[in-house]
């Protein structure tokens, strides 16, 4: 009921701007509260780009962690490792943001200034050496997403029937080949885990707004300060002076809500289809309620 | 020929093992760095004044976040007051009527609500609890946090009720208990430690939330316990201080972060301890 209420209320309050701008809201790059022009493209771009980069970094690492914990680690290390990766999810995002501003951003800045002159001509690396920007945001997001994706991947790997693995070993497979077979078997669920991480990254607000630089411009550069949907709401909502401004922000909220809703439902569906089909073939494993749900942050 | 191919496969395999180990280290590195910085920077500004004093104007050294700590406690308390009954009851419903269509709808709604970005919850709470009254208030902040808390509590309650041995429930029913009294006087008490765990986890999560508070409970430079007024909170205070240009405020922000991390850690550890016990009980039963 609350979910429906959220959708309805956002639609109602955003109606003014939906009516006024229509489709151009999506395409316009101009965000000028003073003259009353609002276009959401830079924010949508920033949100998608930062989340995509974060996934690019986080996915291999998360799968590596999941494989290590599920298949390789000695039994003594397993519990502590699970606990530590989940601790990553428990740290409040504001703390990530604080750390991002004072530790990560200077580090990114020094990476940027140490790049050779030629590389900085590329559109990917252009921009003033601020440190604040897309790369810093993507790194923070990646760290925050890792616990979610890796814990799902771990659960899914655990639900791969042992016969699968034993069969591979019996055929003379090396460890890599056996695990590859298991990963292939679990691909749906792992993809669901990645989507779940994507949903988290899309909606993350505080840590991103503190390091991304908050500049509504579409740019491909890793170092350019940009903006995200969540960040613009956080920054400007309490200052929105007129009805139209507020309404435009609410419409951005509505867009964000819709996107995360779709991504999350899709990921739940994938994970669910994976764990359900495997429960039938394997003996039902004892449920581990809190390990399956990361402690969350 | 064959031997050399085998050699390559083994090498690749070892490289893969190495990669996985590196991935673990790569994830633990930021964790260690974050904890290190929060503790080392935070401890310097942390003293008794921090807990008992009010924020001072820029330039005056000292001062603390006493009002923000009280504020966070009040917000979290209000949220719990709202979310615990609703969450536990929907959890009981999902566990008891597990097969029905409505129960899976509730479960789906809870999962969806859990995935809604906190900033969107903030906008929602603004529309529900701020706009009609034209006033930022503690109640609105508590409402926003409560909405975030409900799905977490509901899902943990459900999962833990399912862990309670079936024989307990059957025993109660065999003794002539109605379904309701079996649930509320036998099953629920057995799962109580687990539910407390769920509540602790939910508290740990929302205590660290900033985004939904920015435009619901807003912020307040002064000490306040009035429900209809804006109130300070630890997280919003850390945010304001972190993006300010003042050295003094940065130090305070680190200290605030340290307090937050300690609260969250304490809750997570307590929750973990409680689940251990419940799982052991489950293993025996």
Poorly predicted regions of chain A are: 279-297
Give the helix tally of chain A: 13
Q: Total number of β-strand segments of chain B?
A: 0
Sheet with most strands: strand arrangement of chain A: 1-2
CATH topology of chain B: MetI-like fold
What's the CATH topology name of chain A? Answer: MetI-like fold
Which structural class do the helices and strands of chain A define?
A: mainly alpha
Please tell me about this protein's structure.
Chain A is an all-alpha fold. Chain A has helices at 2-21, 24-27, 41-72, 75-90, 93-114, 134-158, 162-170, 175-185, 187-203, 206-211, 229-236, 243-281, 289-292; strands at residues 31-32, 37-38. A two-stranded antiparallel sheet of chain A has the order 1-2. Chain A starts with a helix and ends in a 5-residue tail after the last helix. Chain B is mostly helical and 285 residues long. Chain B has a single domain (68-284), classed as Orthogonal Bundle (MetI-like fold). In chain B, 77% of the residues lie in helices and 0% in strands. At the A-B interface, helix 1, helix 3, helix 4, helix 5 and helix 6 of A face helix 1, helix 4, helix 5, helix 6 and helix 8 of B.
Quick overview:
The complex is a heterodimer of chains A (297) and B (285). Chain A has helices spanning 2-21, 24-27, 41-72, 75-90, 93-114, 134-158, 162-170, 175-185, 187-203, 206-211, 229-236, 243-281, 289-292; strands spanning 31-32, 37-38.
